[in-house]
Design goal:
By secondary structure, the protein is of the alpha/beta class. It folds into 2 domains: 157 residues, Alpha/beta knot (3-Layer(aba) Sandwich), CATH 3.40.1280.10; 64 residues, no CATH class. 48% of the residues lie in helices and 11% in strands. The protein is built from 10 helices and 7 strands. Strand 1, helix 1 and strand 2 form a beta-alpha-beta unit. It is elongated and about 85 Å long.
């Protein structure tokens, strides 16, 4: 498992083994492996959890089983509680993104951070939330605010990953080719300009220079690969051959 500093994810009184397994899988998707389980309804270990965890079963093997929330948080210095409902408790409320950004700062300062997730049917009780320093509230549809346990774990784990990993937000799969160099695009433009000129495309004469300029600008706006350039050359050559055959 990763030695990187990270928060503990604490599942409080989870009801279904399948949801515990799905939560483990969601954690491991984003590089988290510190799970604590408080008083699971169906006992522990749980074979349904193991089956659902799939490749993340090691998280369950190493999960710490606790009798109550206080035990699970005994060595932690800062605690977030996830809840979708107003609880009448005065606490700072963070979005998942802001919460995990705050968690990174706390952990980098040497603190131990935990995130509480409540049971599937009712969520965390006020007694659990009272032990937390802050609340995580997911901006869900107010007419349907209930999140599955594993979904909530996944959202929070994703935001942790966003704050800590070097993420490429946009890239292009070049599929065994590479971007065309400027000289290649220049030759492509020359090829089209020459053939279109022979075909009488640049008409009338007073508009010809403007049309050529627009065509050059078109090529420069297109993110062409070498494969694209070769294909476009081939298209034009084939059209000329077809014309000559006719």
């Amino acid at each position: 498992m990763t030695p990187d500093p990270q928060p503990f994810f604490v599942l409080v009184r989870p009801q279904m083994g399948e949801n515990i397994g799905a939560a483990a899988r969601a954690m491991w998707n984003f590089g988290l492996d510190r799970m604590r389980i408080v008083a699971p309804r169906d006992g522990w270990p749980n074979q349904k959890a193991v089956a659902m965890a799939s490749g993340a079963g090691r998280l369950l093997d190493e999960a710490r089983l606790c009798g109550d929330t206080a035990e699970a948080l005994s060595d932690c210095t800062y605690v977030f509680a996830t809840t979708a409902r107003q609880r009448g408790l005065t606490k700072p409320v963070f979005s998942p993104e802001a919460a995990m950004r705050h968690a990174v700062e706390k952990i980098q300062a040497g603190q131990k951070v935990a995130v509480l997730f409540g049971p599937e049917r009712s969520g965390l009780e006020n007694d659990d939330i009272a032990r937390a320093n802050a609340i995580i509230s997911v901006p869900v549809n107010p007419d349907f605010p209930s999140l599955n346990l594993a979904q909530c774990v996944l959202l929070t784990a994703y935001e942790w990953r966003r704050q800590t990993a070097d993420i490429t937000h946009e890239t292009t799969d070049l599929a065994r080719t590479e971007w065309a160099e400027q000289i290649e695009i220049e030759k492509l433009a020359d090829h089209y300009e020459d053939r279109l000129g022979q075909a009488g495309f640049f008409f009338p004469d007073e508009k010809a220079e403007g049309m050529k300029l627009n065509l050059r600008n078109l090529w420069s706006r297109m993110p062409l690969t070498r494969a694209d350039v070769q294909m476009l050359h081939g298209v034009l050559r084939q059209m000329v051959r077809w014309k000559d055959r006719g």
